[in-house]
Amino acid sequence: AILFTVSGPALPVPAIAGSDVVLDCKCSTDLPLEGVEVRWFRTRFDSLVHLYSEGRDQTGEQEEAYKHRTELFKKEFIHGNVSLKLKDVWGSDNGTYRCFIDYAGWYEEAVMDQCTLQCVLDGVRLLCESSGWFPAPEVLWLDDQGNNLTTFSNWTVREDSKGLYSVKSQIEIIHSTNKIRCLIHNEENEQEGKLHISGQLLLSLSMNIYLHFLTDEFFPKVPVNLVVSSVLLGLVTVALSFVLPYNIKQHREIKGMY
To answer: Of the candidates 8, 176, 182, which has an alpha carbon nearest to the alpha carbon of residue 101?
Structure first.
């Protein structure tokens, strides 16, 4: 048997959400491409992040969340480098990773108890604004679990010269979530913006919605603009990719205005 040791980084590995990160793992001996098994996993031996054996990557039993997101530097095996490249990291990737090598009748494992992948999410500010409302609307922020985040936001309502209202609300992401809902509504109408945060950059997106009034003589069709955007703070490179379906009740009953 060939005796060897396996080592990983001594410090936690930081990663910006949506970016790629390399988890270092080094074997003390040179490794061939044949006759070696390299296994990356989380808490359980069979919870495969990446498996290389029999001279190739084995994806059949790989965890679904890691498919098409992992890569080994096979040309570096000859130098004992079995580091893992993890692509498009997200909050769910946080945790401890283990690097296991089985070669020539000997096996070793690097348990990275302190090598916790840290996705940087703090400092992402979202802006949701809409105009052309009557009566004045309210704003509601929800995460993907349905938790009300409105208390963490600030918002203002303004009335224009036509008696219509505009609203603007901002919220800063303070915990890991990959979906945010901005709901703007009043007693009779509702608009909803859904944001999915990923590695693609989209600073702002907007759409026009026309509310249809039953009494056009007194209340002509008014364009209602819903704009949702992100403001990136510091060095955080998290942005928004497009998922903006909307839900709107288009009919407004106006009584006593004939």
So the answer is: 8
Q: pLDDT band for 10, please (50, 70, 90 cuts).
A: confident
Q: Give the model confidence (pLDDT) of 133-182 as tens digits.
A: 888 888 888 877 788 888 878 889 999 999 998 888 887 765 555 577 88
Stretch 238-243: mean pLDDT? 28
Amino acid identity of residue 195, one-letter, is: L
Question: How far are the Cα atoms of 222, 252, 254, 257 from residue 216, in angstroms, in the given order?
Answer: 10, 11, 10, 11
**pTM of the shown model:** 0.49
- 216 residue type, one letter: D
**Phi, psi of 165, deg, nearest 5:** -110, 145
Domains and CATH numbers, the chain: 6-120 (2.60.40.10), 124-252 (2.60.40.10)
Per-residue pLDDT tens for 189-238? Answer: 766 555 544 333 222 323 222 222 222 333 333 334 444 444 433 222 22
Sign of CA dihedral 93, 98, 99, 103: negative
Distance, CA of 121 to chain centre:
9
- Amino acid at site 27: C
* 203: amino acid identity, one letter: L
In the DSSP assignment, the letter for residue 18 is T
CA angle 221, 135, 140 (to 5 degrees): 110
In contact, 195 and 126? CB cutoff 8 Å = yes
What's the count of helices (H) and strands (E) in the chain, helices before strands?
0, 21
CA distance 118 to 98: 16
Tokens of 159: 């009335």
